Automatic annotation (TrEMBL):
Any single GO CC term annotated in Swiss-Prot or TrEMBL for this entry: cytosol
Name of the protein described by the UniProt record: RILP-like protein 1
GO biological process: cilium assembly; protein transport
Keyword Coiled coil tagged: yes
Record-linked SUPFAM superfamilies: RILP dimerisation region (SSF161256)
Gene that specifies this protein: RILPL1
Subcellular location: Cell projection, Cilium; Cytoplasm, Cytoskeleton, Microtubule organizing center, Centrosome; Cytoplasm, Cytosol
Coiled coil: 102-129, 155-189
Organism encoding this protein: Nothobranchius pienaari
Domain RH2 as annotated: residue spans: 284-349
Length: 355
């Protein structure tokens, strides 16, 4: 009961599935007390609504107990995807700029080549006319030398432009290769994060399955213990009724009332364990030594099993926490698994408690 009380005193954000089951056990015990006093009709309409509310609370707590690292991984993955899209967009713009530069370079080169072809044609014409003219004056020679110098200047300027554009193209190629390497590194990091996320999801599903199995075992053991306690109570009532009947028969046969027998050591131990029975009460229930031993032994076994299950559940919880701490911090996770939720044990726990 102390554990159930602590579950009710917790903050709503700190509740776990185990706390919800503890609260359900407390509600079941309260239902049992009300049914013992007023009957089942008093709770016939309220009980399904309370069970539904507890089931909804269980689903909400299980959703809110997801690891925060998975949310960080999901955000990291979204950030990497946005960076990749931005890099691809920059690369596309860079390629467009390169294509524009190449188009401009091709146009200028074509113009210069056409000028060179024109100058060569003029040169050939002049060379073909030279043998015909026997006497060429100095003015014509200077004009021919001026045109040859012009061709040299045009060739030098064309070479400078070609070299400059070649250097620019090489620089753009180096920048493009660096961008591709960055993209490949980001893709490898994304693959690694996706693999880590898959492993974490698998571990979380295994731990959740183990925890739910342990919760089911605990519910079954608690239900068995409650059923055993009810059987013991029924036996006590039956023994009390038989004892009263024997006392009535003995009083009719012998008016002198016999002294009550002293309690046996087994009865004393049972009364101490039950707490609330008076050893001096002549109408207290009496059992044989073997019956008391069997009841006490079975109850101790149930307590031991419940304790072992609680220890095992605590171990799995601590193991899950260590796995979450040791897992790498970069995270992407926002996978919404559309799997049907497992059957809740709250309904079975409450209805077993009030049986």
């Amino acid at each position: 009961m102390e554990g159930f009380g602590s579950a009710l005193e917790k903050n709503a954000a700190d509740l776990t599935v185990m706390d919800v089951y503890d609260i359900a056990a407390v509600v079941g015990q309260e239902f049992e007390r009300i049914i013992d006093q007023y009957g089942c009709e008093a709770l016939s309409r309220l009980m399904p609504k309370v069970v539904r509310v507890l089931e909804i609370l269980e689903v909400m707590v299980s959703r809110s107990s997801m690891s925060p690292d998975t949310e960080e991984l999901r955000l990291e993955l979204d950030r990497l995807r946005l960076e990749r899209i931005e890099r691809l967009e920059k690369e596309r713009k860079h390629r467009q700029e390169l294509e524009q530069v190449e188009d401009v370079w091709r146009g200028e080169a074509q113009d210069l080549l056409s000028q060179i072809a024109q100058l060569q044609e003029e040169n050939k014409t002049l060379l073909s006319n030279m043998p015909i003219k026997d006497s060429m004056n100095e003015e014509e020679l200077q004009r021919h030398e001026g045109m040859t110098e012009k061709e040299k200047q045009v060739m030098l300027r064309l070479k400078e432009v070609v070299d400059k554009q070649r250097d620019e193209i090489r620089a753009k190629d180096r920048e493009l290769s660096l961008k591709n390497e960055d993209i490949e590194a980001l893709q490898q990091q994304q693959s690694r994060l996706m693999k880590i996320n898959h492993d974490l999801r698998h571990k979380i599903s295994v731990v959740e399955a183990q925890g739910k199995a342990l919760i089911g075992q605990k519910v079954e053991l608690e239900a068995g213990a409650q059923a055993q306690a009810q059987e013991v109570g029924a036996l006590r009532q039956e023994v009390t009724r038989l004892r009263e009947r024997l006392q009535v028969e003995a009083s009719t046969q012998n008016p002198e009332e016999p002294l009550p027998l002293p309690p046996s050591p087994a009865e004393e131990a049972f009364c101490e364990e039950s707490g609330g029975l008076d050893l001096k009460d002549p109408n207290r229930p009496r059992f044989t030594l073997q019956e008391l031993r069997d009841v006490l032994h079975e109850r101790n076994e149930l307590k031991a099993k419940v304790f072992l299950l609680q220890e095992e559940l605590a171990y799995y919880k601590s193991d899950e926490a260590e796995d979450e701490i040791e897992s790498p911090s970069p995270e992407l996770r926002s996978r919404s698994r559309s799997s049907a939720p497992p059957e809740s044990g709250i309904k079975r726990l409450i209805f077993t408690a009030i049986m």
